[in-house]
Amino acid sequence: MKINSSNIILDSDPRIRQKSELVSLPLNDEDKELLSSMLTYVRDSQDPEIAQKEGLQPAVGIAAIQLGIPKQLIAVVIPYEDGVDEVALANPKIISESTQVGYLDSGEGCLSVKDEHPGHVFRHARIKVRGYDLIQDKNVVISAEGYFAIALQHEIDHLSGILFYDRIDKNNPWKEDAEAEVI
């Protein structure tokens, strides 16, 4: 399955608020292909040449529900100068989280959200996530912090029908927290 920006549903589509269902493990061929295609989309969207040629919006993550498919599948790719954090997870579940919060100083964005929703989205600064990782072909527990942790929480929220702007304080969107990790 080839994914491009035209496959992605927007927040005006009620399906984006649908709760995603657990997938059976081991993954069937259809779910493997879908998750692999999601990972490919995110990887390719970060290459400006490929993104322009294939009509891809730049992304660090995607959830199956953004394609209108209510399955607990997410892909996240965070490139760094010295490597990459990347996962293609089935049935991801946060199993522990820090009390300290973190947020992206410039706010968050989403492939399914075209309108601006400025403000800070407070999330846990560090998390542990359990799930099946297609890349490693096994059940894993991932310890994540910083941008990787925020991206994972953003995508896992999609599985419950939650969008990033649901977490912005409507009365004080740019509020700060002196104890928070600012990314």
From TrEMBL:
Its cofactor is Fe(2+). It catalyses: N-terminal N-formyl-L-methionyl-[peptide] + H2O = N-terminal L-methionyl-[peptide] + formate. CDD domains: Pep_deformylase. Its EC number is 3.5.1.88. One of its GO terms (molecular function) is metal ion binding. InterPro entries: Peptide_deformylase, Peptide_deformylase_sf. Binds 1 Fe(2+) ion. GO terms for biological process: translation. It holds the Pfam family Pep_deformylase. It comes from the Bacteria. The active site is at E155. Keywords: Hydrolase, Iron, Metal-binding, Protein biosynthesis. Fe cation binds at C110, H154, H158. Removes the formyl group from the N-terminal Met of newly synthesized proteins. Requires at least a dipeptide for an efficient rate of reaction. N-terminal L-methionine is a prerequisite for activity but the enzyme has broad specificity at other positions. Belongs to the polypeptide deformylase family. This is Peptide deformylase. The gene is def.
